[in-house]
Design brief:
Elements: E1 7-11, E2 14-20, H1 31-38, E3 49-54, E4 61-67, H2 77-89, E5 96-101, E6 104-111, E7 114-118, E8 123-132, E9 137-144, E10 148-153, H3 162-170, E11 181-185, E12 192-199, E13 204-206, H4 210-224, E14 230-233, E15 239-242, E16 246-247, E17 250-251
Parallel strand pairs: 2-3, 4-5, 10-11, 12-14
Antiparallel strand pairs: 1-2, 3-4, 5-6, 6-7, 8-9, 9-10, 11-12, 12-13, 14-15, 16-17
């Protein structure tokens, strides 16, 4: 049995196990089983996600990102912030860096303990359409901000059934076969929204979701005609500040 050094990092309560795999310490064989074991809360280290940092010829590094169930994900906003911080601390990259994800190239900047990530432009945007649930129809919006997200406005952010409704939408036929993440957000007040997220691959509510916060901020900006930036208050009470540009209804 070999010893493997790891970091445990949190981005607004979204937590990750990060391993420097530039020397191929972690093999593909048995990887899914390994991830599910070490990410299991109260049984092992516990985490929402698992990140391998690897060598890359076209950027400072590349990553492999996995959800806690072992499934691979194209992108994770808070994971990207933690990966950038990890790379900077371990001198893998300088304060201005780029790295390759399954969703494309990501650029990040580490300044005075804060990490800013320039995300890819959103795609597959569809606003204010209805889907049928077991209890009633529900009006939702969809965006892909590296991974797919559904965004739902609610007047009761504390009382909303994140687990029940979130799971039903996550596995809804509209989003098959890959499924979707599901975000519940409050109305905008002082350029601020509150968010709760059901994450695909974690299969439950998480304390924060970076890509979900981006999707939610853009939906709120469109609905309420709010300009950049928007502060998103996560379940952990952390604040993610989302900067964006608009041009004829499109976001960048």
């Amino acid at each position: 049995m070999k010893n493997i050094n790891f970091f445990k990092m949190s981005g607004s309560g979204n937590d990750f196990i990060i391993i420097d795999n530039r020397e191929n310490l972690i093999e593909d064989k048995g990887l899914t089983s390994f991830i599910t074991k070490v990410c299991a809360r109260r049984m092992s280290v516990g985490a929402d996600g698992f990140i391998l940092i690897e060598n890359c010829d076209s950027a400072d590094f590349k990553w492999q990102f996995f959800n806690s169930d072992g499934s691979r994900a194209e992108m994770c906003g808070n994971g990207a912030r933690c990966a950038a911080r990890f790379a900077y601390i371990n001198k893998i990259a300088g304060p201005n860096m780029s790295f390759v994800t399954d969703a494309g190239m990501v650029h990040a900047q580490v300044t005075d303990g804060r990490v800013k990530v320039n995300m890819m432009d959103p795609s597959y945007c569809e606003y204010d359409y209805q889907i049928s649930l077991k209890t009633c129809p529900l009006k939702v919006s969809s965006l892909n901000t590296g991974v797919p997200h559904v965004v739902i406005m609610t007047d009761d952010i504390e009382g909303v059934d994140v687990a029940g409704i979130g799971r039903e939408i996550r596995f809804h036929e509209n989003y098959a076969p890959a499924g979707t993440n599901v975000n519940f957000i409050s109305g905008v007040k002082n350029k601020t929204i509150h968010i709760r997220t059901y994450e695909r691959g974690v299969e439950g509510e998480t304390l924060a979701c970076g890509t979900g916060s981006i999707a939610s901020a853009l939906v709120a900006a469109r609905k309420y005609k709010v300009e950049s930036p928007i502060d998103v208050i996560t379940r952990s009470k952390g604040v993610l500040t989302i900067h964006f540009k608009q041009d004829n209804g499109r976001f960048y």
